[in-house]
TrEMBL record:
UniProt protein name: Pyridoxine/pyridoxamine 5'-phosphate oxidase
Pathway entry: Cofactor metabolism; pyridoxal 5'-phosphate salvage; pyridoxal 5'-phosphate from pyridoxine 5'-phosphate: step 1/1; Cofactor metabolism; pyridoxal 5'-phosphate salvage; pyridoxal 5'-phosphate from pyridoxamine 5'-phosphate: step 1/1
Gene Ontology MF terms in the entry: pyridoxamine phosphate oxidase activity
Purpose of the protein: Catalyzes the oxidation of either pyridoxine 5'-phosphate (PNP) or pyridoxamine 5'-phosphate (PMP) into pyridoxal 5'-phosphate (PLP).
Protein encoded by which gene: pdxH
Keyword terms: Flavoprotein, FMN, Oxidoreductase, Pyridoxine biosynthesis
The keyword Flavoprotein appears for this protein: yes
Enzyme type, top EC level: oxidoreductase
Gene3D superfamilies xref list: Electron Transport, Fmn-binding Protein, Chain A
Pyridoxamine 5'-phosphate oxidase N-terminal domain: residues covered: 36-139
Pfam family of the protein (one): PNPOx_N
Cofactor note (record): Binds 1 FMN per subunit.
Residues where FMN binds: 56-61, 71-72, 77-78, 100, 135-136, 180, 190
């Protein structure tokens, strides 16, 4: 890791034209060279209407110039926070590469067609799990297992599971994206793209 801290800086001239294109480069490296267990795991921080923060890990399932998409339960704590306050922060902790990416932006629900298309790609057991769990509510393990067993009996393997109405995606449209590269002597590189009103991006360097 020390070698990596020394070898790989991040200069303004190295950056792609958009933060999503730059993210795609780093994500590819994280997936292939990063020795990371789940490079698409990211920490989603939300705040409720009173400004009280909470955070949790979720999996990034899709990204493009429109934003970064994850799927969850729309009755969960995070989703209730986002209904009251759509401002969100995403953090990719790519520690083995001495890198992190921090995105801030605004979260909106994905359309039902997009959600349904993704739901169909999930394993049968995960589809049942989305129905069985009232995410973020207090539950007894026995009740959770019983709910799953009921659903597994109703929808055996091979039978199509309907998309739960309380389940779907959020797309985070980025407003700022910071690329952090660890360097020697704590003189890290921090380059942040900031969205401009005309749709272009300004890049600024932050002190480490
Ligand atoms: C590696 C990892 C990946 C996860 N991926 C997801 C995910 O994609 N969607 C999700 O709703 N929860 C995911 N979870 C569970 C969340 O961290 C969290 O427990 C759950 O979403 C409830 O959060 P909330 O009560 O703050 O809303 C994941 C957890 C871990 C550790």
């Amino acid at each position: 890791m020390r070698q990596q801290y020394r070898a790989e800086g991040l200069a303004e001239d190295d950056l792609a034209a958009t933060p999503v294109a730059q993210f795609a480069r780093w994500f590819r490296q994280a997936a292939t060279e990063g020795r990371l267990f789940e490079p698409n795991a990211m920490i989603v921080a939300t705040a409720d209407a009173e400004g009280r923060p909470s955070s949790r890990t979720v999996l990034l399932k899709h990204f493009d110039e429109q934003g970064f998409v994850f799927y969850t339960n729309y009755d969960s704590r995070k989703a209730r926070d986002l209904a009251a306050n759509p401002y969100v922060s995403l953090l990719f902790p790519w520690h083995p590469m001495a890198r992190q990416v921090i995105i801030t932006g605004v979260a909106r629900r994905t359309g039902r067609d997009e959600t349904a298309a993704y739901f169909r790609t999930r394993p049968h057991g995960s589809q049942l799990g989305a129905w069985a769990s009232a995410q973020s509510s207090v539950v007894a393990r026995a009740d959770l297992d019983a709910a799953y067993a009921d659903l597994a009996a109703r929808y055996p393997e091979g039978e199509q599971v309907p998309v739960p109405p309380h389940w779907g995606g959020f797309r985070v449209a980025p407003r700022t994206v910071e690329f952090w590269q660890g360097r020697e002597n704590r003189l890290h590189d921090r380059l942040r793209y900031v969205a401009q009103p005309d749709g272009s991006w300004r890049v600024e360097r932050l002190a480490p």
